[in-house]
What we know:
The chain has 4 helices and no strands. The chain has helices at 2-26, 54-58, 73-95, 99-129. Helix 1 packs across helix 3 (73-95) and helix 1 (2-26) packs parallel to helix 4. The model has no long low-confidence stretch (mean pLDDT 89).
Amino acid sequence: MIVLFLIILLGASIGSFLTVIIFRTTTQETIVFRHSRCSHCRHALYPLDLLPIISYLLRRGKCAYCKVQISWMYPLIELTTTLFFVLAFFLSAFLSTNIIVQGVMFFCQIILLSVLLVIFFRYVHSKYLC
Ligand SMILES: [Zn+2]
């Protein structure tokens, strides 16, 4: 049970990082060495504003500083990544009883899924939201 909780935490955190990659690479911004900011008012976001999925729900989808609606893509990407990580976890456990093989399969699946999610959501973002 604790492992599943950690998988959910890992999936949500990686999903949050994938949103950084998706949104910043479409605007040619660096993905490292810069604090996250509101895309509207440019206010730096504090740790409570950066909790995957939870921050969006706590703030009711709005920026805590300027109250502008935040894109629904942020929680969608975080939630999709979390669900894919949980599915990869159970699929790995289903396909093998060897813990090392399970770990390798899980790692390969989450890398592949993360790349596919970035490609898909970058396409959606550039095609429909820019
Ligand atoms: Zn704002």
